[in-house]
Amino acid sequence: MAILNTDRIITLKSRYSAVRKHSVSICTPLQIEDYVVQPIGDVSPPKWHLGHTTWFFETFILQPNFPDYKPFDPQYNFVFNSYYETIGARVIRTDRGNLSRPSVEDIYRYRAYVDSKMQLFLESDRMTAALEDLVELGLNHEQQHQELLLTDIKFILGHNPLFPAYSQEIDLSPSDQDPASMIKLNAGVYEIGFDKESFCFDNEKGRHQVYLHDFEIASALVTNAEYREFIEDNGYHDFRYWHAEGWDWVKQTETVAPLYWHFIDEKWMNYTWNGLEEVKMDEAVCHINFYEASAFAAWKGFRLPTEAEWEIASKHFNWGERWEWTGSAYLPYPGFKKEAGAVGEYNGKFMINQMVLRGASLATPKGHSRNTYRNFFHASQRWQFTGIRLAK
Amino acid sequence: MAILNTDRIITLKSRYSAVRKHSVSICTPLQIEDYVVQPIGDVSPPKWHLGHTTWFFETFILQPNFPDYKPFDPQYNFVFNSYYETIGARVIRTDRGNLSRPSVEDIYRYRAYVDSKMQLFLESDRMTAALEDLVELGLNHEQQHQELLLTDIKFILGHNPLFPAYSQEIDLSPSDQDPASMIKLNAGVYEIGFDKESFCFDNEKGRHQVYLHDFEIASALVTNAEYREFIEDNGYHDFRYWHAEGWDWVKQTETVAPLYWHFIDEKWMNYTWNGLEEVKMDEAVCHINFYEASAFAAWKGFRLPTEAEWEIASKHFNWGERWEWTGSAYLPYPGFKKEAGAVGEYNGKFMINQMVLRGASLATPKGHSRNTYRNFFHASQRWQFTGIRLAK
Amino acid sequence: MAILNTDRIITLKSRYSAVRKHSVSICTPLQIEDYVVQPIGDVSPPKWHLGHTTWFFETFILQPNFPDYKPFDPQYNFVFNSYYETIGARVIRTDRGNLSRPSVEDIYRYRAYVDSKMQLFLESDRMTAALEDLVELGLNHEQQHQELLLTDIKFILGHNPLFPAYSQEIDLSPSDQDPASMIKLNAGVYEIGFDKESFCFDNEKGRHQVYLHDFEIASALVTNAEYREFIEDNGYHDFRYWHAEGWDWVKQTETVAPLYWHFIDEKWMNYTWNGLEEVKMDEAVCHINFYEASAFAAWKGFRLPTEAEWEIASKHFNWGERWEWTGSAYLPYPGFKKEAGAVGEYNGKFMINQMVLRGASLATPKGHSRNTYRNFFHASQRWQFTGIRLAK
Amino acid sequence: MAILNTDRIITLKSRYSAVRKHSVSICTPLQIEDYVVQPIGDVSPPKWHLGHTTWFFETFILQPNFPDYKPFDPQYNFVFNSYYETIGARVIRTDRGNLSRPSVEDIYRYRAYVDSKMQLFLESDRMTAALEDLVELGLNHEQQHQELLLTDIKFILGHNPLFPAYSQEIDLSPSDQDPASMIKLNAGVYEIGFDKESFCFDNEKGRHQVYLHDFEIASALVTNAEYREFIEDNGYHDFRYWHAEGWDWVKQTETVAPLYWHFIDEKWMNYTWNGLEEVKMDEAVCHINFYEASAFAAWKGFRLPTEAEWEIASKHFNWGERWEWTGSAYLPYPGFKKEAGAVGEYNGKFMINQMVLRGASLATPKGHSRNTYRNFFHASQRWQFTGIRLAK
Q1: Do chains D and A touch (3 or more CB pairs under 8 A)?
Q2: Which whole number is the average pLDDT over B122-132?
Q3: Would you give the DSSP letter of residue C62?
Q4: CA distance C130 to A53
Q5: Which of C39, C159, C221, C312 is most buried by a 10 A CB count?
């Protein structure tokens, strides 16, 4: 059983502390009431995110490994569990918005309690390399929830009729896109997937060959201006651009623009971190779902890149402001294996009826992105910071 | 235009102040998070009740009658409107639980603002007898919401897996029921309905004759002990006692006991204002719906009284701990007329598919009950403080 | 045990035969395919009606009373049972339209088989006065289904895009309404309910006193012309006339006219037994639900009569073309008692959330109507031959 | 404009006639009632299939190309259209089961009318090579519906409580599977997709390279015996084998066995073309969905093959009794292009949230299968004749 050396311990403790603090700093601009609500099933209340990420460390690190560890509150397991079927009964996701207790203050006390125990544990002689990996997974898990926190906070505030701003202090504003050119790559056998020493999720593992045909990919993301052209050319009313399922979605939801766009007094307004503002036309379009990304591409005479094309081409363009929809379904890489135990449920169980997104977004924590990262959502979801890069 | 004399003004101002304060005192034991959630459509978030009752005075008294009145926030009309179709667009009821803003603090400031303007207005020379009636309606409206506040708070806390207590300080505990005897009344033409000078709702007006047959009515409410017998005699599994619709409800919801009852470690526990406690068998059964009340009566070989029977017999028994289900559908009294304008929507529009409840509950504010009062709910609802009185 | 005399037997056998034949004659104009479909849950496939009415005699008369009776097919109990909870598992109502077998031919053979056994049984010495009552109930049950057969056939054909005619030969056409005058009746204690020797349903039994106030009731039904005025005066777009529930129904279903009305080429067309025809303005309006009847009355400054008013006044006007909505909820008469056994489920279990209709319709079999008859439907239902009589 | 030579015309007319007759022969064992019903949205009434396939020829061949062609009935376009958005309004799919008219007899007359016109047209000088392709598409379209006819007929009869047999005369019985061995193939760049002169669907076009890793694939299909082991080993109650979505499906539908399996008197029975029979353990398992196929493979320590692996390996094993689930999502091949016009909607619009099946089934018409054929269904569907081939 490998004991960690002092340097590694110091680094890990410091990293643990930094990641944990970042979750709290994301919530600083909130009022207590904002922590509680859940407007749709996809969105979790911020206080749930804060509790759930803490529960991960309590359940997978402290309880099984730290002798005499006393849970902060035994009932929290029931409240903050998510989809891990091996860990007792779970709360139905859409019920999260009904729970006024534990209070926000209780949850911050829960975080402080678990953090202090974790700091003790990390420097104890119970700490092993295998557990270091699990801590690292916990920290990456928390970073995923940091992105979700921002995504969900935007939804909660952006669906309030008062359109409150989030914060003027946190800089999450996108840059203007440069004019796009097409980057050409040649056919051949390429390699994709993660093969470094550092952390990655199980779904990226297993670097492997793929055959790519000649393709072209845009150097920049589709802008709001370009997307407005699609709207004005009747794109949401012409079934020819849409998947049958996407067309049903358009008609049923009566969608005519990206999420957060509102046509007010003859102008397209956009709910942003600063409240309601006029749409900035040179920014990358955001908050569109796969159906919309795909319909836009069809209207433009292009297509979405596959995830392999994206990964191979990614060194030739800037990325990181939007999660970019690909034309690839979320499926296991060759040789994919679920890990044993509850942690093994992490990714594989979602490999059906989801599309892959590549890149990262402005809400992604620093250090949590890489060009092999495989994000995934259902084709209908658009509350994420999603965008479009065209290919041919 | 009748100007009010000083005494009447002082009385009204003092009554206004007392009623408004009582709403706040009901919420004192709450944490901020408890004000926000809406677990089911029937339940409104406490902060919505506080805002909505305030909106009533702002919309119906201050805006049309107080010159130069400046609304606290023009968007609040949209947020705190309820079902009054004549007053602009309304929020879909089930959306109330999604709104984190206005914050609880904002709403208390809203209340303070409107209360100060109301105090000015009540003593101004704009105040008339007709407006006094409207203020009185607003205060009775607020008292109705005080009862709903308690009802909804119990639901919110009672459906939290931590089962938090509400408050030890507020005394809302029921008394033990005396053994019931049957009170006999003779057939004949009787009069029911309200005919006094003081306030009543439009649905009670129009005192009128009804013919009653000989009947008997119980001197006391059905107790938890009696209801447990029904449960133990398989009452929830024998369709013969149930309306077809009630039977569908039982099977679909898999109900086997009153709301808030939990069978834990071989004991029937009950969520009360003090948290989870063993069921007190001599108290009146509570939180059952019309289907259950009716099935219980059928099992016992009795029936529910009609609302006319109840009103005529009410001077012969104690009432006021439970709203009591009657066998009467909620329909207009002879000669019922809707009043003009938004206030006219108050009651008449609900006169379909609802059953009448008579009496009052422990959550009813003092002075807000009378034996002509007609409460009404859908046969399936059981979050109210409802009980059973048998008849024959 | 009372044995029937020969005359009574001959009469009963002949009546049995006549009623049973009438069901078949209603179906004569149908094509096989028309017997099978179930466009909505309220409508049953005609072949189900033919089987279910036969099942009644097999289940309640032949099986328990006729020695050595061999069921035509033991599985038919499962297929043709309806809502009688005491008789085994029931088919979910909305599933009836999925069953292609038993075929129409099989069901006619089932009818012939049961009819021949019934004729034998009726003249056997097993036949008693109690059983005669049960046979009579079965025949009245079948007559109810004859009306439903016509109602459902109209729905099936009238919701087919080809709008096929039913039959030119069967005369079910309504008469023109005379101009209406108001009939005045004085307040007092009246008696309603059935008290004759002949057959009635359990819900009409128990003749009893009611107190009526002075009232007026129209001598004729509301015509299509009058109803068109309501439509043209924006009646479907003004919430003030509607119950809250009715208004939700209007908005959700986007209803703007009675069922079967279609606005084509600037004319109101009506699907009738002869296919699509222009609306005949002097006929009584038909196929409106309680919400519509009630909103129309409110618009006109009238109300619907109570069922007691209707019954007392009925000798003063013609009725029998439309089932007429009353303002009375369907509730038990004083002293109402469920009968024991499966037959006891006949009516009482539906006494919640239904409104009473009085009268009869052109689809009601001859001899199956009386002024004490209590029909009932949910306030939203309009596939029946319903109409409006105003009161004040 | 290429005119067809006489031989090609004779061949085409004869092929047209043969394909069209086969649809009729599939329906020969049906009773009229069986043509009408639609138990679930996935299933279409047989008479709709017969009409829709006829509508294809009328709409795409005769109307635009045959001068003076008079449609059999102009309203049939509305009734028999399916999902072709460019061709007028479409009937909501789930409504098909409500239409008793046109009658089965009418539809057979429709078929005869269109067939006689088609025979005239095929030998006319209006017939071109481009139209020949379109006729060929129409015939392949009809063959797809022949398979669906059998699939839907089995569902209709197999969900009838009488479990009627379809026909003893038509031989659609599966063979016993040989014991499976694993076939090994080496990594490398392979080619897949259609590149012959003959007919194929647009989704198979564009033969292209793919890189495959070393893999093994089973020589035979999974048998009922093997699948029963999965059931008996608690496979349907252990979430570890299932996708999250599949697990939700299991719990919500309470599924414990393949479609058509019934556990009766301690035996697994199976609804087959001959009625209810004991499960034949050596036959290939059938009527399982992707979730089940995938869970079975996970339980067994294997996986499903990708569609490329299947196509490359297909020459090494027998196939054609079951459509075989692959682990590939249904996505466009490189260079896929929708064709212009209504025919362009054929396949591309479904390329989201569907999984690819390869092979063919016993219900597939002769001559309608090839190893490049890409069938596709949603992961939850199991009414098709689907099976499992394992890979590693």
Answers
A1: yes
A2: 94
A3: I
A4: 73
A5: C221
Q: Is residue B231 part of a domain?
A: yes
Residue C337, Ramachandran bin (φ over 0: left; ψ between -120 and 50: alpha; else beta): beta
Contact A334 D213 (CB under 8 A): yes
Contact A33 B104 (CB under 8 A): yes
Q: In the block, which residue shows the tokens 């690909």?
A: A326
Q: Is residue D26 part of a domain?
A: yes
Tokens 């490329």 belong to which residue?
D308
Q: What is the mean pLDDT of residues A365-376?
A: 96
Segment B329-379, tens digit of pLDDT = 999 999 998 776 666 667 889 999 999 999 999 999 999 999 999 999 999
* A141 and A212 share one domain: no
| Domain containing residue D316 | 182-387
Q: Does A164 reside within a domain?
A: no
Size of interface A-D (CB pairs under 8 A): 77
Tokens of B207: 């005192």
Annotate B194-225 with DSSP letters as a single string: B-SSS---GGGBS-EEEEE-SEEEESSPPBHH
Question: How far D23 CA sits from the closest chain A CA (Å)?
Answer: 27
CA dihedral angle for residue B11, residue B14, residue B20, residue B26, rounded to 10 degrees: -110
> pLDDT tens digit string along A372-385?
999 999 999 999 99
B47 and B96 part of one domain = yes
Q: Could you tell me the CATH number of the domain that includes residue C293?
A: 3.90.1580.10
- The CA–CA distances, whole Å, from C191 to B214, B335, C204, C210, C313 equal 16, 22, 12, 6, 12
- Which residues does chain C have within 8 Å of residue B211's beta carbon, measured at their own beta carbons? 189, 209-211
Token digits of residue D343? 């025919």
Residue A27 tokens, joined: 């919530």
Asked whether A85 and D242 are in contact (CB, 8 A), the reply is no
Question: CA C103 to CA A388: how far, in whole Å?
Answer: 56
- Which chain D residues in 259-288 lie under 8 Å from chain A, judged by CB atoms? none
Q: Are residues C131 and C186 part of one domain?
A: no
Rounded Cα–Cα distance for residues A137 and D367 (Å): 53
Alpha-carbon dihedral sign for residues D24, D27, D28, D31 = negative
Residues B144 and B241 in one domain: no
CA distance A294 to chain B (A): 31
* Domain total in chain D: 2
Contact C247 B213 (CB under 8 A): no
Is residue B171 one of the residues assigned to a domain? Answer: no
Q: Do D38 and C98 touch (CB under 8 A)?
A: yes
pTM: 0.95
Q: Tally Cβ neighbours within 10 Å of residue A194.
A: 20
Angle at C38 between CA C35 and CA C41, to 5 degrees: 145
CB–CB contact A327 D327 (8 Å)? no
ipTM over 0.90: yes
Which one of B123, B158, B193 terminates a domain? B158
Length in residues, chain D: 392
Contacts of A328 in chain D (CB under 8 A): 331
